[in-house]
Amino acid sequence: MIDWNHFTPWASLAGGALIGLAAALFILFNGRIAGISGILGGLLRPRPGDVAWRLAFIGGLAAAPLAWSLAAPLPQVQIDAGPAALIAAGLLVGVGTRYGSGCTSGHGVCGVSRLSPRSLAATGAFMLAGFITVFVVRHLLA
Amino acid sequence: MHLIVAAFVGLLFGIGLIVSGMTDPARVIGFLDLAGAWNPSLALVMAGAIAIGAVAFRVAGARTDSLLGHPMRLPAASAIDRRLVLGSLVFGAGWGLAGFCPGPALASLAAGSVKPLIFTAAMVAGMGVFELFERLAARRSQAA
Known about the structure:
The complex is a heterodimer.
Chain A: H1 9-30, H2 36-41, H3 52-71, H4 83-99, H5 104-113, H6 117-141
Chain B: H1 2-20, H2 25-32, H3 41-61, H4 82-98, H5 102-106, H6 115-143
């Protein structure tokens, strides 16, 4: 059944358009893919001339809630996972995105926009694993 | 100039994540919960992003240099191999477990909760572990 109470089609579409616009500006002006795991992970293998733009991007991303709160209160969020689950999830996301060369932004937004078969496969794989994990955690273990 | 663009794009990306609801793990898990009360909102985030991205990458694909004169770095890899699929499955399991992926985690660090910090620290540690294994594997193949 569909959760109509939390369905926000216009906000989601508008937010998605901003994400797409950010990815568009980045490739057109800087010639770079806006893949967050790749931008962050690249800092762990620092090369000359390759660090500053990564830090600038991540700084901008991390400043988003601060900039937002200057204009309006931040939307309420709900984080149900406890510390142990957060640590396990973080490790899986860290290893998985580097091993699989991308995440929801690099493969899911930029790659699918290019109709890259590789990114379509990656997006299918991480969505499938996400569906299965939530099913197991919410409906089999709970 | 390219650094200003990078910082602005990061900020715009983060604002988009907040507007779209991606920074709320409960909404992410609501989207991944097909068997429960399914919230289809995040499909529209993808739709909105890809609609704009598709035009931009079409233009980008026809150019060799960016508007600021940097080389156009579009990924050349095309193989759907074990690394890609296995890595993506591992990532998806972590995504479903906490409702965070890398962008929203970074865009939540300064929102005032300690939980995104815990997740992000573990994520960077995971990336570090991967990096270590890669270097060890490279050294071993050099020695062989």
